[in-house]
Write a structure and sequence with these properties.
There is one protein chain. This protein is mainly β and 116 residues long. The strands form two sheets. A six-stranded mixed β-sheet has the order 2-10-9-4-5-6, with no helix packed on it. It has a four-stranded antiparallel β-sheet with strand order 1-3-8-7, with no helix packed on it. The relative contact order is 0.32.
Length: 116
């Protein structure tokens, strides 16, 4: 079983930046594509970004393309999300998971709140 713990969220003004981290325990995640997802109040959880096992291939949701960057450090069993030029509509709880996600791996997430 894998435990995923997200951190790095907080309150930031529009236009600011945050860097989220996701650290896995229980087993290595280096053999899995990893992803970031988010869920805003009253909305369905949505895909944000994903990264291949080696880190060379990434893809992003249309709403974050050009502003967010996903990366990973397999030696640290961790995945990161650099978020720049944040917008109010980026406010959500952010989660990491394998991609496609495994329902058993969802963690508590980390809250990101962007103020205007």
């Amino acid at each position: 079983q894998v435990q995923l713990v997200e951190s790095g969220g907080g309150l930031v003004q529009a236009g600011g930046s945050l860097r989220l981290s996701c650290t896995a325990s229980g087993r290595t995640v280096s053999s899995w594509t990893m992803g970031w997802f988010r869920q805003a109040p009253g909305k369905e959880r949505e895909f944000v970004a994903r990264i291949s096992t080696g880190g060379s291939i990434t893809s992003y949701g249309d709403s974050v393309k050009g502003r967010f960057t996903i990366s990973r450090d397999n030696a640290k069993n961790s995945v990161y999300l650099q978020m720049n030029s944040l917008k109010v509509e980026d406010t959500a709880v952010y989660y990491c998971n394998i991609h496609p996600p495994n329902v058993a791996f969802w963690g508590q997430g980390t809250q990101v709140t962007v103020s205007s």
